[in-house]
Recover the amino acids of this structure.
């Protein structure tokens, strides 16, 4: 039957999962390495309709915060055609997960998927996109024993370093006060020795005197703990 103007295409509403013809076409295009949407995708990227995943991410405080949050409490998973960023935060800190979701949206120009888990008191923030690991500078998979290092552009700039530390401490930090002795314990806990090295270095470079433990880096001096809390705006979110 000839195609008539105004009529839908033969494959309208069909997918490769439910139609043999569409599936065969998809497999043929894949085998011949034909990108049927290359021109459309390029045009939409120029118009800003879809994010350009080939371009590097803008280096700013929000990206520095997100890298710290990802290193502390996030996970990057690689798939054949994409990667997923997943950050899981407790429902007891609604301002934190709401702030983090906004930062993810601003950094990637894409709305993340936010889901409250039914069987646990936590919220999952996730986003699929290509080249996430490369653009964030964070490796995919299990990072517990991998040699993690903060990006050079963060290490060399005080404001970016402070923003990254905020992400790290918001993810894995805690603050407690021993009432009888009025002793402060501002602690960053993690099982990756290389990441603990980075946090210790960052604190010392900012003029603090951290105490190192096997699974934590801590500030125990009252004035230093209070100064650091104010410096990074710990548990404070203004975006």
């Amino acid at each position: 039957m000839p195609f008539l103007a105004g009529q839908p295409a033969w494959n309208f509403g069909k997918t490769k999962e439910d139609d043999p013809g569409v599936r065969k076409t998809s497999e043929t295009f894949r085998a011949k390495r034909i990108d049927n949407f290359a021109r459309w995708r390029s045009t939409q990227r120029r118009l800003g309709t879809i994010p350009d995943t080939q371009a590097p991410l803008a280096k700013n405080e929000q990206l520095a915060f997100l890298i710290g949050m990802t290193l502390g409490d996030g996970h990057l998973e690689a798939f054949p055609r994409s990667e997923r960023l997943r950050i899981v935060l407790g429902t007891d800190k609604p301002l934190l997960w709401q702030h983090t979701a906004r930062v993810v949206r601003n950094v990637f120009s894409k709305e993340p998927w936010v889901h409250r888990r039914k069987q646990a008191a936590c919220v999952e923030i996730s986003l699929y996109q290509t080249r996430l690991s490369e653009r964030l500078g964070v490796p995919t998979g299990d990072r517990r024993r991998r040699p993690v290092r903060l990006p050079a552009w963060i290490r060399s700039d005080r404001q970016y370093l402070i923003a990254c530390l905020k992400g790290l401490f918001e993810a894995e930090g805690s603050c407690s006060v021993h009432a009888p002795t009025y002793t402060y314990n501002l602690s960053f806990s993690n099982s990756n020795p290389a990441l603990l090295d980075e946090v210790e270095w960052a604190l010392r470079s900012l003029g603090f005197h951290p105490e190192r433990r096997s699974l934590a880096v801590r500030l125990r001096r009252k004035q230093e703990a209070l100064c650091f809390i104010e410096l990074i705006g710990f548990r404070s979110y203004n975006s």
User: Anything to note?
Assistant: The chain has a mean pLDDT of 89. The domain at 61-232 is CATH 3.10.28.10 (Endonuclease I-creI). The chain has one domain: 61-232.
